[in-house]
Design goal:
The chain is 30% helix and 18% strand. With 252 residues, the chain is α/β, with parallel strands linked by helices.
């Protein structure tokens, strides 16, 4: 019913225009894109013409020095300019910020102000035990509830109803700012998750935190239907503790 193109970085793929045009022709409820936002200006017109208006943009700091430390790139100004371009063009933009203790957790109020200024939804994510972060997660980790308690000292947070299979629980502030929390470590939602992940090599996985999956490459439609049934049985009800593959290899 819904497809999200994520990465690595989807806009880096040479075939992106062809892929997204073909997907837009399918009878889907929604197509979304998760991007770092650097190349967004190249594709805004194409996406709007295809009515693909839901964008998740990774933005782990609003401070240029901190942003460079986290991403090893000097693109903050470009990303913010592209967020402004997208919102002015009518896109529905959510920013995703992985909150890390001692690195960017002091910026949550800055993100609230940013969301209000630019008319975006801001979402705070817990550091997950995936790939490289497995070795640093305990040092960086801050539970979502800690952030909520901190924000409630200065804001009124009114809960917003979300679908049962939503990854984020959401609030609206007294000034109308939409914010969400993805607490996959402290408050896992595996029992309600409805997502599968298809990698560029044709491997379909039942979960972000699963090394194993089933390959769709070269399979007939009938064989694929059988694989889908098998994959339903591979969906974890309880959250796996960690996984060693890199986040960018499976859609982070």
């Amino acid at each position: 019913e819904e497809i999200r193109l994520t990465g690595g970085e989807p806009f880096l793929r040479r075939e992106f225009p062809d892929i997204v045009t073909r997907l837009a022709a399918l009878p889907l409820k929604k197509i979304g894109i998760t991007t770092n936002g650097i190349l967004l200006d190249r594709y805004c017109d194409l996406l709007k013409s295809l009515n693909i208006l839901d964008l998740n943009i990774s933005l782990d700091s609003l401070n240029p020095t901190t942003f460079n430390t986290i991403t090893h790139g000097d693109y903050l100004a470009k990303i913010i300019a592209n967020i402004q371009l997208a919102t002015q063009a009518g896109f529905r933009v959510k920013t995703n910020t992985v909150i890390m203790k001692g690195i960017n957790d002091h910026e949550i109020e800055d993100f609230i102000r940013f969301a209000q200024k630019h008319n975006v939804t801001v979402r705070f994510l817990e550091v997950m035990r995936i790939g490289y972060a497995c070795h640093q997660q305990s040092h960086w980790f801050i539970p979502a509830q800690t952030l909520i308690n901190r924000l409630r000292q200065r804001h009124t947070l009114t809960p917003v109803s979300t679908p049962l299979d939503a990854t984020a629980f959401e609030f609206v502030t007294e000034t109308g700012v939409q914010l969400g929390f993805i607490a996959s470590e402290s408050q896992p939602f595996c029992g309600h998750c409805s997502r599968w992940r298809l990698a560029a090599d044709g491997m379909l996985r039942a979960c972000l935190l699963k090394e194993t999956g089933l390959s769709l490459k070269g399979r007939s439609p009938l064989e694929r239907q059988s694989i889908y049934q098998q994959l339903l049985g591979m969906k974890p009800y309880l959250r796996p503790p960690e996984v060693s593959h890199a986040m960018h290899q499976i859609g982070g």
